[in-house]
Amino acid sequence: LTNDMALTVNNIALGYRKNDQTNVILQDVSFDVPEKSLTCILGPSGIGKSSLLRVIAGLDKPLAGKITLFDKSITEPQPEVSFVFQSANLLPWLNVQQNVAFGLDFTCHKRSNKAEISQNVDNAIAEVGLTHAINAMPHELSGGMAQRVNLARAVARQPKLILMDEPFSALDPIIRQQMQLMTREIIDRHHTSVVMITHDIDEALAIADQVILLGNRPANIVGRWDIVSSYPRENLLLLNEIRVDILKTLQRNENNKKQEQTVEFVI
């Protein structure tokens, strides 16, 4: 890993207003993402992981705190940031090539001319191994192929940061492993950084340079691990110590939550 930080998340708080009250769901969340690295965010369902990703993308505003990408503050969607959602969300009336190219000629992407855009699109499709399916329509694609189009669409923007919200959770284990490998290759080739949400501890151990665990309510960071073993990681048993530590931290966090709920109930 380099020492240069691509992304800095500083004291982020998230919440929503309801009946003149602010319900805080996430508080005091701070972490850095080094250049050319992959950070996985783990945590129980409904704790605010996807909401945090939307704020990093500039799609939503935090209650407090600041997010910077290469020292530039993010307050709105950025052309340098790509988002890979859990479902591929392909436009059914466009073929693979057109789906990957979609949005690249919008005003905020005026940096490229048509020939450059076309080249970026074709390169991105080749990177995910879909050159043979360039004219296929979304209904002709398997789930794994659709998600590869989703990834190619993110790569074609030539982003500095790719945000991924459980992108491989619906795929079978072999396709999932291929997609993980592809993601690591994209980081190496494009020197981009990735922040990925996953529910799967083994997935995080397999591909992340840094694992962040969110817990408690309002959520904050309850654990952070650097994984320095080289990639690809064939033998995850070597990372068993970290796996056990993550599970213990999760368990401790759940127990604390139950105690709080019991105390509230007794009161």
Walk me through the structure.
The chain has seven helices and ten strands. β7, α5 and β8 (193-197) form a beta-alpha-beta unit. Helix content is 35%, strand content 25%. The longest helix is centred in the last third of the chain and has 27 residues, at 240-266. It has helices at residues 49-56, 96-101, 114-127, 143-156, 173-190, 201-207, 240-266, and strands at 5-18, 21-34, 38-42, 64-69, 72-73, 81-84, 161-165, 193-197, 210-215, 220-226. A six-stranded mixed sheet has the order 6-7-8-3-9-10, with helices on both faces. It has a four-stranded antiparallel sheet with strand order 2-1-4-5, with helices on one face. It is globular and about 55 Å long. It is an alpha/beta fold and 267 residues long.
Apparent shape: globular
Mean pLDDT: 88
| Helix segment tally | 7
The amount of helix comes to: 25-40%
Pattern of helices and strands: EEEHEEEHHHEHEHEEH
Brief descriptors of the model:
single chain, 267 residues, alpha/beta, six-stranded mixed β-sheet, four-stranded antiparallel β-sheet, 10 strands, 35% helix, disordered C terminus
SSE diagram, text form:
Layout: E1 5-18, E2 21-34, E3 38-42, H1 49-56, E4 64-69, E5 72-73, E6 81-84, H2 96-101, H3 114-127, H4 143-156, E7 161-165, H5 173-190, E8 193-197, H6 201-207, E9 210-215, E10 220-226, H7 240-266
Parallel strand pairs: 3-8, 3-9, 6-7, 7-8
Antiparallel strand pairs: 1-2, 1-4, 4-5, 9-10
Helix pairs in contact: 3-4, 4-5
Short description:
With 267 residues, the protein is α/β, with parallel strands linked by helices.
